[in-house]
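Reopening this one. Same input as before:
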Amino acid sequence: MPYVRERATIDDVEAVLWIVLAIALVIGEAFTATILVIFFAAGAAAAAAAAAFGAPVLLQIIVFAVVSGLSVAAVRPIVMRHARPAVETGDTPFGIEAMEGARGVVLDEVDESRGMVKIDGELWQARSFDGKESFQPGDRVRVVRVRGATVLVWHDDVPDV
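Same output, byte for byte:
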């Protein structure tokens, strides 16, 4: 006798809905920088497991709430501690974070709307940090902040050591 699959049960449908919710939350996390939504996705995945084992809807909701809450309370602080900037943690900064404080030389006049500086052999678009000062070619500047592919610079008043 050929294999005949029974109709999907309510538990199957509920589990699929929880899985769809978990996937939607994971996708939502990709578009945020909060590192928060992912924990609700974990709660939805746990609720999907509860639904797959035949738990009633109320228990599924409780599992979702408890797992989401516990993961936010227990795991998020650990993740956020490791996501802090190197300046706060005392680690050596790298990447864009290491640019802040770097020294450069002005190549094209830097003012509030345009400019070009050379930092460690690389050319960067630059703007004056306060928008009022301007820097002439040859002036030494220091990077105060990085915004995208543009550095905000200020006078380099610290002498070479």
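So the earlier flakiness isn't reproducible anymore. For the record, DSSP finds five helices and five strands in the chain.
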